[in-house]
Design goal:
The protein has 132 residues and is mostly helical. Helices cover 80% and strands 0% of the residues.
């Protein structure tokens, strides 16, 4: 592959990483908002459904992020093999350690937030309604 093709693949992998974070982030934010509005006092089936939706979205988001990160690292490995890399290629290669944030840190943060939401859904005292 040419350097230009590899850079194009890098751009696609990077875009997939960004897009793969949208749904889980939106859902986590929405559930936190719903908790503030009383989700923790909803019927247990509703709370279980919310937890399941978050878990499924989180697993899918993590898999998409890990896959895109792995593809990005493969592109970086190919870019490293070029004999005379451009300045842009050297910049992309320098990003390799940060791609591991997507592979490891982001999913770990999701797990922490998910556990905190589960605690709020099932083990916390109900919040007072707004205006009291």
């Amino acid at each position: 592959m040419t350097e230009s093709q590899l850079i194009t693949f890098w751009g696609k992998a990077r875009a997939h990483i960004i897009v793969s974070q949208a749904a889980p982030t939106f859902l986590l934010t929405a559930v936190v908002g719903f908790l503030a509005l009383g989700l923790a006092t909803a019927d247990p089936a509703v709370r279980i459904a919310a937890a399941g939706i978050l878990l499924a979205s989180g697993i899918f988001g993590a898999l998409a992020q890990i896959s895109a990160a792995n593809e990005g690292l493969a592109v970086i490995a190919d870019l490293r093999a070029l004999e005379a890399p451009s300045a842009l290629t050297r910049c992309i290669i320098a990003m390799a350690p940060w791609v591991n944030v997507v592979r490891y840190v982001t999913p770990a943060i999701f797990v922490i937030v998910y556990v905190a939401i589960l605690a709020s859904l099932f083990f916390s005292a109900p919040a007072l309604p707004f205006g009291r």
